[in-house]
Every structure is written in C-alpha cells, then in structure tokens.
Design brief:
Layout: H1 2-21, H2 29-57, H3 63-71, H4 79-91, H5 103-125, H6 128-142, H7 150-153, H8 158-168, H9 172-195
Helix pairs in contact: 1-2, 1-6, 5-6, 5-8
Length: about 210
C-alpha cells in the first residue's frame, strides 16, 4: 500500500507541476488529496481490521510479519547482506542443487538485478512515478537476508513489463531472447509449484514454489 500511495503522490505532483508550467487551470489541491485518500484509506482500514483480527484470535496483531522470520527465515537487513549471501550461494554452486530447489535463489537474484536496471530505464524514459514504484519495490526485496519469491512477486509490477517492452521494441533479436529465456524458466517454476517441491532453506517443507 505504501508503495502505491507514494507512486500516486509523485504522479499527482508531476501532473500539478505540468499544469503550472503549461499555465493550464488546476483543480484545488484538497480535491486531489481526497482522490489520493480514496485510494489509500480503504486499504489502510482493511489492513487495520486484519491486524485487529489476528490480535483477538491469535494474540499477535503482527503475526503475519513474525511468521516470515520464523518459518521463511526472512529478516530485515542491509541490502548488501542479501547480495553477499546470494553471491556466496552462487560462488559455492549450491544453486545447482535442484533436489532442494536452491536454483530458485538464482532466479530471485537475477530478478532483483533486472528490477534495478528497469527502474532506472523507466524513470528516465517513461514516468518518474513508475520508477518510484519499482524503486520502492526493489528496496522491499533487497532489505532482507535472502531473496525469496521475488521472481513471482515482481509480476504485479506492471512498469517492469513496460520497461522490458521498451527495451525490446524495434529489436526482433531482443524479443526472441526474452521469449527463449522466459518459456523454460516459467515451465521450471510452475512444475516445482505444482509438485509441491521445497527450497533448501525450508527444512519443514512449508515453502512451495
């Protein structure tokens, strides 16, 4: 929610600035603020209701946060921690241990790098607000100990596909590269998810990809 509200706020600022530069009439700032609130407040209320429900029935309003560290080993950390851990995994070739699905660490690590590159491209050539959305998402994925499920979570970030389309536009060989890479990767991840296979860092078999 915070990511979307921040991106919308930047977009609102850009729109109002464009109107001022072009000397076009602008709507009152209060009305634009109400529109932004109409998008963010319902989501905030839903989140608050969920926290309250968990507090009453589970005893912890932030149980959905604690479970991430207990069962998925996701902890808040400096971004270099993620890169050091990922590089160590690659350096020791443990990502080739397909029996435990640790190769998914490679997919997630590449997704993080790709997201960073597309963030810069989209910010420069499309819209700054789109870059803000991707940049904040990149921070969410990198300020933790290990990448986890990044490959599938970036699918909801529509500016990512705008950036890839912009990169491939007018270059048939780039389109073919994306197609050749995406199809086998998609098949690999889907078959692991359907078969209920687990990751190396998931000894209890809770995480399925």
């Amino acid at each position: 929610m915070v990511l979307i509200v921040a991106a919308l706020a930047v977009e609102l600022w850009q729109q109002r600035r464009a109107h001022v530069v072009g000397e076009e009439p602008t709507e009152p700032l209060a009305r634009d603020g109400l529109r932004l609130a109409a998008v963010s407040v319902p989501t905030a209320l839903a989140l608050g209701a969920w926290i309250l429900y968990q507090k009453v029935h589970i005893g912890s309003g932030l149980a959905f946060v604690h479970v991430q560290s207990v069962f998925w080993h996701r902890h808040l950390a400096a971004p270099w921690t993620l890169f050091v851990n990922s590089v160590n995994q690659l350096r020791h070739w443990t990502f080739l241990d397909t029996a435990h699905g640790s190769v998914t660490i490679l997919f997630d690590f590449i997704s993080v790098l790709l997201l960073a590159a597309v963030t810069v491209q989209v910010s420069r050539k499309v819209r700054i607000s789109y870059g803000v959305l991707l940049g904040l998402a990149w921070c969410v994925f990198t300020f933790e100990t290990m990448p986890l499920s990044v490959t599938r979570e970036v699918l909801v970030l529509f500016p990512l596909f705008l950036g890839l389309g912009l990169w491939a536009s007018g270059h048939p060989w780039r389109e073919r590269v994306l197609l050749v890479l995406f199809i086998p990767c998609q098949y690999y991840l889907i078959q692991r998810f359907v078969r209920g296979l687990r990751r190396l860092s998931d000894p209890q078999g809770i995480i399925t990809r």
